[in-house]
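Let's practice the habit of predicting before peeking. Look at the sequence and jot down your guess about where helices and strands might fall. Then scroll down.
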Amino acid sequence: MPSSCWIDQQTRESIILLSLLPRFTAKRLNVLHRKLHKPLASFLSLDHNSQLALGFDEEQIGLLRRYSQSHAFRLASNWHKPEQSQYVLTLHDSLYPSLLREIATPPIALFLKGNIQRIDEAQIAIVGSRNPTTSGKQLAEQFAGQLAALGITITSGLAMGVDACAHQGALDAGGNTLAVLGCGIDTVYPRRNKALYAKMIENDGLLVSEFMPNTPAQAYHFPRRNRIVSGLSLGTLVIEAAFKSGSLITARAALEQNREVFAVPGNVLNPTAAGCNYLIQQGAKLVTNIEDILEEYQHLICHPSNVAQKHSKKSVTSYLATDTLLDSVDIDVTAIDIIAERNKLPVHAVMAALLEYELRGLVASVPGGYIKLRGK
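Done guessing? Here is the structure:
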């Protein structure tokens, strides 16, 4: 990668330091750059009154001196090692993703690990419940795999549940995936996703965070993380989300960023579907197959009609629920593999039919499979 892609180290360190300050935004960075009329790093050597004149308040001036001597700042400043696939990407770098620049509050510095080409590729975010149903997990993998197979990068937050399934689905399809973290770039959270974290790096994926290396996960980090997930993406697909959930925060951020929001509908009796159904009521596009997403981005696909034909066998709408299939679901929990075996159908076809049944209130997704609702 040519060195001209990167700003000089002094400027990079200055932006990292500024990113640590409370109330210091991208807009403030641009104003500071215009006011200085000299290299950005020069603000550190100015006297107190000159720093006040540049717009820094007393608290920020005190923190600048403290942070500049901190171990965390030194660690962050040394993170940029392109030869080791580690990067610090700032608003002043030409490689900063164009879509992320457009949001109201873009991070002024990002820490990256992995294949940096992922950062500015066409991306679709897939988010949802941390405790999805079996069908939710399989739908996340299915949507992610089909989109990734078409060259679209799948972006999510590396959380348990739908996020992890989306990343895994993209990897299984041999596609690209990107994770935005709610902790430091070198911290794995949740720990149960340690293997997935490593697999993404091994398979040309990319990890992204606006938090300093070594920063532990905190609850208030995740809304900030979510705006980056949606900000990097052309659109956000929500698969199973409670009415009050982080996934709806991501969807709200996408709307504020003037991006598309898609939602998979669910059974009105299922609490994990309440958020998706609400989003659809509020105008999100109802999605039952990837063609519903692709028709919004036909410029990304060379021959959309061929794509639709290629994936028609995997389309949710191409499988109609039948009485025979419904009869194969017991009142007790019935595993999806058993339902597929009874009907001599592939699992993805059964999943599509079961989704239709859920929408009609004939079956319910439960841990371990599905149950037929009594009286149906």
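How did you do? The longest helix spans residues 134-149.
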